[in-house]
Write the structure tokens for this entry.
Amino acid sequence: MSESQSRRWCVNLDQSILSGYVYVLAAYLLWGMLGVYWNLLHPVNEFEVMAHRILWGFVVIIAIACVIPSKRVKLIHFIRGMHTNKGEFVRLCVASIAISTNWFVFIYAMMNGAAIEASLGLYITPLVSILIGVIVFHDRVDRRLVTAIALAFTGVILVTYGLGTFPFIALLLALTSGVYGLAKKKVKLDAVVGMAVETMIATPVAIGILLFFYTQHSLVFGSSIQVSMKLVLAGLLTVLPLLWFSKGVQTVSLTTVGFFQYITPTIVFLMGVFVFQSTVAVVEWIAFGLIWSSLLLYSLTLKKRKSSN
């Protein structure tokens, strides 16, 4: 390779890595800002919002899969051979239930003034994933990770004390994310095709929910062009960050992604304090301090593992 070719290759590589950073950053920023979007739909019932998110998300991802020939072929091949690959389909069903539940809980939190608790769930998600890895895959953990998990657990106890109730929203968000990650780890399908199947599995339930609201004369969709467009747009806003993330992780290291993942809960936390005017008691600040400390330890562990490889 000549010097000019080598220089050109390095420039292209740098541009590819830079675009990867932009894609990943954009994905986490949009995931964080979606809280405001769900709050704007407050007059709509949370179940109807969720149903539209699944339905229109399915329409968008199927359209994308059909436009790209390679994705279309893979999707058709999977559907035709589904009866011979029941294990993969079961894993996708588990992933579909987990991510749908996760989406609903987050929408509910954003529409009912529970942004702080939601941010707690998003913060502890990586540590819950570690616990699942230890339990299911018998992953080894060092002292830093054990300390990080202990700090986060203490933080959750303090939040429970501060809220006066068990933090169901936070733990449901973390657990469903962990289960989703576990199911996806075992799925061999292409990311776009996998998401198409996941939303396809959940779509009949979404349609059933919408039909129920229609029969009860409480369906908001169609009553206003503005609200209806927001509900349709929910599908695109669901798929877009996932596509950006999938594109970005092709060139960005998982360690870097690990640091980026704290952008979303930080945005949600700041949104709860400054946008939704949620009050944060002293004990909750202490709890979040413990959780942030645990995440710092977790990040240092990731960095240490990366440098030792």
Remarks:
- The chain has one domain: 14-308.
- The CA atoms of residues 135 and 160 lie 24 Å apart.
- The first helix runs from residue 3 to 40.
- The mean pLDDT is 85.
